[in-house]
User: What shape does this take?
Amino acid sequence: MAPHSTTDNDGDDVMQDTDAMQVDDTPDAPAVKSEPAVKSEPAVKDELEGMFDDDDDLMIDDEANDFKNGFGKTSTAPISDILSASPSDPEVMLQFYSRLFPWRQLFRWLNHSEVPSTDFANREFAFTLHNEAYLRYQCYPTFETLRRDVLKLNPSRFEIGPVYSARPRDRKQVPKGSFKPLEKELVFDIDLTDYDEIRTCCSKTSICIKCWQFVTMAIKVIDVALRDDFGFQHIMWVYSGRRGAHAWVCDRKARKLDDGKRRAIAAYLEVVRGSSQSGKKVNVDRPLHPHIQRSFDILVKDFAKNILEDQDPFRTEKQFDRLIQLLPDTTFKSALREKWSSTIDRSSSDKWQDIDRLAKSSVSKTLNAKQLLDHKQDVILEYTYPRLDAEVSKHLNHLLKSPFVVHPGTGKVCVPIDPAKAEDFNPDDVPTVLQLLKEIDQWRTSVKEEGEGATAQARVPDIDKTSLKPYHDFFGRFVQRLLNAERQAVEKPKAEQAVKIKKEEDLEF
Amino acid sequence: MEGAEAIRRARKQRRGNVIGAAAKESGLPYPTRLNFYDKPPTQEVSLEEFEQWAIDRLRVLGEIETCLFRNNTPAEIDATLKRLLDKYLPLASNHSVPEAERSNPKRFAGLTAERRKDHYSHFILRLAFARSEDLRRRFTRVETILFRHRFSTDDTRERHEFMSALELDSQVVGEGEKAQYAEQLKAVLALGARLPPEKTRAQFDAESYVKVEWDRVADLVESRRVFIRGGMAYVPSGALVSLVLAEFSKKLDQSLIATARLLPRLDEDDRLIPILNHLSKGFSAPEYNSSAAPTTLSGEAITAGQIDGLKTHFPLCMRNLHSSLRRDKHLRHFGRLQYGLFLKGIGLSIDEALVFWRQAFSKFTDEQFNKEYRYNIRHSYGLQGAGRNYSPYSCQQILMDHPPGTGDAHGCPFRHFSVDNLMLAMESQMGIGNEEKSVQSGVKQDVAARKYHLACNRVFEHLHERELKREKDGGGGSSMRETIVHPNEWFDRSWNLKNPGSAKKGRVKQEVKEEDTAMT
Assistant: This one.
């Protein structure tokens, strides 16, 4: 069996997603026997090599597996050839879009129904091409047309905007003022760069599992607030590909919020305020608002491990100075400073305990225990509470990167995160596009070695051969739940009306 | 079948507007003092009433906008409004008429007349202010504040009647549910109030809650002043005003847009349109009333040559424009307008103005000047083009309209300058340097609080400290009654303080000025 023959499935729906976009020149995955007819001479040789090569490394450079892109143009570069390329290599992206991207589910997600509607057709897509050109106001009636265009333009990434009152492409044809955004998911953006002043393990674009915990904590706090307080149910969290996460709140009511109401939610959730020049960034009234109290109860559990231990944020003099700044009472503060200046090397956990110990020793007569407690709570919030990029959430017409696109810098796929298992998510485990393409290759080899039937294998979609599969399935289930809710929302008023009419009839006679 | 008929009738009645039903019962067109303005007036009014009522309401609204511009607190606005409303737009409550006589329409006639005026003037101004988005936004804003004032000063029982008639689509929170969320509700109730726990508990026990969808009280959500669960906000009855206000401004917004769409179809003759146009223009800042102010110096017209000497009576914005003009031998469009109209306001005639500007623009040839600027200057005196006699810009217009860009010298230094540049300007233009620390820090505070007029007035008080004291000692003190909100007011007060006794002579020019304003 050829290691690199490709099928035309893009993974999300084998039966329905067959259009002109076949990447392969052979509609049915070629069986071993038919292969020499299609393949050039070296391919056969390499195939043999691959067969007996125990080396895990399948990146055989001179592999020649011809395939066509959607326009019948023959592309000579095989997967293996591009595996050595950079993740943002156009050829890699083309492979990814044609074989692994969940077009159909994306369509169902944005269309809110199986039947194509304006929810999808009037939705703006914006492409960033490989030459950094930015194409806004693209729109498509169906996912096939979207997919075709993506394969043609081959963007390095693309974003999703609002649903407009008319097709975004026609914006100049409709009367002035009547082209306006109508709805879009309520979105949130958490980015670790906003935590740079409090994270010590990494900075700028790099991240590790330690500082990823900031994002984990943020997901926990925001998710529960959106569900319990605002009553939203369809919240999808997506890894942003490098150092953050996005939330898409897809409930019908959320999609229809105007800017003012989006601003209200963003402000409701915002607790850490101020720039690097401002002093204390958490100033919340007491008693704590139920939302802040609940958030605090969640965060305080993680404070010792995630912050004190892993981040060790009060280690250096400059760092603990910042902590002292946030505490009350001058006498008490100078006592702390004195103590820590002589024992700079004490860990943050020890220093945190020093605060209570010193307070008990009644070093300051003016220190108010309640006030100290409040300030300590504020410190915990300042070092743990989610830092949202509020501007993203406030505006209906803000564009946000689509789920499942590839981050051009890291090559990682923007996969969904299950908020119920947010703590298990590790950005290091997220597959890169190169890894996924390699998995397709490896899958073939392993099957071949196990000697399974060629026909059975031919029907396996590419996506099933990769570690992207669980994310696809998760997304699919999310979309299905959303669609069910949409259907109910449409059917319910009808049913109610029917009941009403019936009742009225009863009354009449 | 008879039974069915009765049910149908009953259903119809239930669906009917409650206000309408109440009105029918009591036979009154305006059963409550408050009005949600959801029904347009249908009776005839005379043209005089049409205009007079609108102007009266406009005075009130204009004052509200001034208060906003001064950053007044709601309490301050309420105090101002109380005075003003009694004069221009009184609205008495039902209990001003004895209960027994309320059913008698005659005893109610006074109230009905007041309410009618309130009702009609509101709708007349809708017509005047629906035309542009900016006007609509401002109108909704001030009308909402007016409504809030009346709502909060309303009699408790009448307010309750009004609210229940509104059908706000809220559910009452039962005792069981209230107990379930007692902890959270108490926390929100006590938020920032710093009450002892027992007080909070007592307040909580006495409080009743209603549940509404959270986005109906988005402002309470935004500032976390309400408890929300499952998309519903638990609003204490005390905070219901926020709900009503949100509803009020939402409805008004919608109807203004609807009105704007219908305006072209009004197809009105020349009776109403001129009045409406005039009204919407009047809704811009309290205009500097030049006829009421003592005008120029000793009552004689000032000449172009005197301007440099008068600079000591100019506010900072004008001194800055003057210096820019002398330095660059030029001012850009809005600079010319702001400064030129100010000079016109202090009494520079059109002939002198042409001399002044011709001399000031010394780097231009006569031909250039005549071609580019002469028309402009004459235009601002109403002698060219539309013949509109422009009034000097008020502080509000300077603050709000046309923010200066690069190369512009107009605007308000307190608002449009960085703090450092403002301090430099104060030093170079007014001699308020580092030795006047208290003034500097006061100005910085005001500016940080966005109270620009206060900063400017602070500077005024500092520069006229001696004169103000003398005036106060002399029993006068009339010129510092209110904060200055117009550059020409600054000039007049400054002039009068420095030249006591000359004010009266200025009255000579008053009649001419009246004519000017009549033209606008």
Summary: Residues 1-25, 285-296, 503-520 of chain B have pLDDT under 50 and may be disordered. The interface with chain A takes residues 4, 7-8, 183-184, 186-188, 190-192, 214-215, 218-219, 221-224, 227-232 of chain B (CB under 8 Å). The radius of gyration of chain B is 28 Å. DSSP finds 26 helices and four strands in chain B.
